[in-house]
Write a structure and sequence with these properties.
four-stranded mixed β-sheet, about 700 residues, alpha/beta, 28 helices
Length: about 700
């Protein structure tokens, strides 16, 4: 029974006490009772109190051990008394928070006991420790909290002795089976007992400890694990905030283990090895939502950690590849919106006829001719004037490749190439005409919509801005693309300036007199230097030791948001004019970057494993020589080979295996160069006589691969 129940029960007992005898009239004195009469009266009162305590569970509390309701909805009302419904005459305050008992055992003491038990076979002391510790949230805090009754109510310190927790869990898997079962029973008791009422920081500490338990790797523990996850998922946003910051303090190995158990739990629930291994899915529909919410908690902890504890891709569940995602997405997208418009279908093609080496302005203006959004969502087809190539995908790739090269050329002045080898938006003002940025956003959206990976080098912060918000507002004047900027974000784009601001924050001298800075900054725009105030009257406000953090934050926000606000807003609306979709809400900035630029991993070994052959087999001498040459190429030549074969030097999101790469035999003299069909990701090789000859011909072909032709 929890603390609140104890308070309610005491109130009920108070109701059942014998009534207070009426007060005699003022001025009269009651007769003094005899000793026998006094004894009889006390016995009668004891009998009444004993009768009042007889029921083991009051009628209103018969469900006191029920678990919380499924999902995050409101709890099912229980027929039990509340202190708010009691008459004022019997109301009493809730009891104070229990005092955590003092435990003096340390990790060293425990390890010595566990080692002695393993050698002697006498597990009594270890068994008693596990039985006591996992029986309640209070005991968990008593065992693992560094100071039993200290508050530890900040996000910076959970107050948990991590070394002790690790030692206890590492030893647990080596203990006899009865001890492991007793721990699980204790967890059941603590979960049943502790879920009611508002959460305290000690409760959060208990969840923080329990979620690290290694026993949840077995499907036999999944029912208990599911209830733990449900309670954690139902915590308030403020409680999740604390847990996320505590979780990020775990070591990489200790952090990864519960993440892997969560992924395994989700996979096993979706695809059980045995039909009767787990309870029926119809009765456990809340399992996966609870697990994904807790997994999101770990993902949030990973995101706020700098650098991240583990790659974000490690949160992917490979087992889910067996699910029809498109079908699931349609169900999700149509949820609550059954009336789908027929205009959501986009048939036919969007065709461009482009003169070879055409001006980028004219090419991009052609996109503007498609004034309806539905036209932009047609399959793109490109024809180069004077070229005989038929666009089965290769010409579109080539057009985007040439277009991007010109867009980001320094002569256009729309983007700057920073010292961190990435592109960023120019801050030049163009009389409120930012349509060129909108057109470039549209081009990038078209590339994503047509599954074309672009050779664009935007920093990750750019994609965060594209997802702020993830769906474009209907009001064109609404603020978009303004994401919270930090010094780490600036470091991706302008590392030298970020380093200088770091030095300012750590400067030990007199900031105002030694550095002579004000809240006014200067910026070069098209060869002219202009000044801007970070605050009203900023040129009169000196930067001091007290306000330097504000100065740095305002400066970073000015550089990454305010100085390019109109440019990026136009770019944002152009991108979302093509890619407007609820699916963007499901993506991280890194995933949007992969959609735009493809995978950063250029793995030719993976391409070799996924390759298909026509007229050759993988054991033929020509094929063996081909892969020996390709694998020995430097990165730049490998990219040229990829561009030669596919029309793009970018790897698709799914990796090399998604290219469907093919090598075909061509009956041609060996003095011919290799031929490619970029529409089909195909290379045609004559049967060269030697590895040296193959390398020479292949290098010439891939180094001069621009243009199309039909023989």
């Amino acid at each position: 029974m929890d603390r609140q129940d104890c308070g309610v029960t005491s109130c009920r007992e108070r109701e059942k006490l014998p009534p207070i005898s009426s007060v005699p009239a003022r001025g009269s004195k009651p007769p003094l009772p005899s000793l026998g009469t006094l004894v009889d009266t006390l016995n009668q009162r004891r009998g009444r109190v004993r009768d009042a305590d007889t029921p083991a569970t009051p009628p209103g509390l018969k469900h006191v051990r029920d678990l919380p309701p499924i999902g995050g909805g409101p709890a099912r009302p229980k027929q039990r008394a509340s202190i708010d419904t009691l008459p004022p005459t019997v109301k009493a305050p809730f009891p104070c928070e229990p005092v955590i008992p003092l435990r003096t055992k340390t990790a060293k003491d425990f390890l010595e006991e566990a080692e002695h038990a393993a050698l002697s076979g006498d597990w009594r002391e270890v068994r008693d420790f596990y039985l006591t510790t996992f029986d309640s949230f209070i005991e968990l805090n008593a065992a693992f909290k560094r100071e039993a009754n200290a508050p530890f109510d900040t996000i910076d310190d959970s107050g948990v002795d991590g070394e002790f927790v690790n030692a206890v869990y590492d030893a647990l898997v080596q203990t006899p089976a009865d001890i492991q079962k007793s721990v699980l029973k204790g967890i059941i008791n603590s979960l049943l007992r502790e879920w009611k009422g508002p959460r305290t920081k000690d409760d959060l500490r208990a969840y923080f400890i329990l979620v690290q338990n290694p026993q949840y790797s077995s499907t036999g523990t999944y029912v208990i694990y599911a209830h733990l996850l449900r309670q954690m998922a139902a915590l308030s946003e403020a409680d999740h905030h604390f847990l996320a910051h505590w979780l990020k303090k775990l070591s990489s190995r200790r952090f990864r283990q519960p993440v892997e158990r969560l992924l395994q739990f989700i996979s096993a629930r979706l695809f059980p090895a045995e039909p009767d291994e787990l309870p029926p899915a119809s009765k456990c529909a809340w399992w996966i939502p609870s697990a994904t919410k807790v997994l999101a908690l770990f993902n949030a902890a990973n995101s706020v950690s700098s650098p991240p504890i583990m790659p974000f891709s490690d949160f992917y569940n490979i087992a889910l590849e067996h699910i029809d995602f498109m079908d699931e997405y349609r169900i999700w997208q149509s949820y609550g919106n059954s009336s789908r418009s027929e205009d959501s279908r986009y048939p036919s093609f969007l065709a461009f006829c482009v003169p070879w080496h055409h001006s980028v302005c004219v090419c991009v203006r052609d996109v503007q001719l498609s004034r309806k959004r539905c036209d932009l969502k047609k399959k793109l087809r490109v024809t180069f004037v004077g070229e005989a190539g038929l666009d089965m995908g290769g010409l579109t790739k080539e057009w985007f490749l040439l277009l991007v090269r010109q867009i980001f050329h320094a002569d256009y002045g729309m983007f700057t190439y920073t010292e961190s080898r990435c592109h960023w938006f120019s801050s030049w003002k163009c009389d409120n005409n930012y349509s060129e940025f909108q057109l470039i956003g549209t081009v990038m959206g078209l590339a994503v919509y047509n599954s074309i990976a672009l050779d664009i080098h935007f920093p990750l912060y750019c994609y965060r801005k594209l997802l702020t918000p993830p769906t474009a507002p209907c009001d064109q004047d609404a603020s978009v693309g303004t994401a919270t900027a930090t010094l780490d974000d600036l470091r991706q784009i302008m590392p030298e300036l970020a380093h200088g601001l770091d030095e300012l924050l750590n400067f030990d001298g007199n900031v105002e007199e030694d550095l002579c800075l004000t809240f006014q900054v200067w910026q070069e725009e098209m060869g002219a230097v202009k000044s801007y105030n970070l605050r009203p009257g900023g040129d009169k406000i000196p930067v001091t030791k007290q306000n330097r953090k504000e100065y740095v934050q305002l400066y970073v926000d000015f550089l990454l948001n305010k100085s390019i606000h109109k440019q990026f807003a136009a770019f944002y609306h152009g991108f979302h004019s093509v890619c407007a979709s609820d699916a963007l809400m499901l993506l991280r900035p890194e995933e949007v970057e992969m959609l735009v630029c493809g995978s950063p991993q250029l793995d030719m070994s993976a391409l070799q494993k996924a390759a298909h052959y026509e007229g050759y087999s993988k054991s033929d001498a020509t094929i063996r020589s081909f892969w020996e040459v390709v694998l020995s190429f430097p990165m730049d030549l490998q990219k040229k080979l990829l561009h030669f074969a596919t029309g793009s030097d970018r790897v698709p999101v799914g990796g090399m295996a998604d290219l469907n790469f093919k090598i075909s035999k061509i009956d041609a003299p060996t003095d011919w160069l290799p031929v490619s069909h970029t529409c089909f990701n195909q290379i045609c090789l004559p049967p060269y006589r030697s590895r040296k000859e193959l390398k020479h011909k292949l290098t010439i072909a891939i180094s001069n691969a621009e243009g199309f032709g039909l023989q």
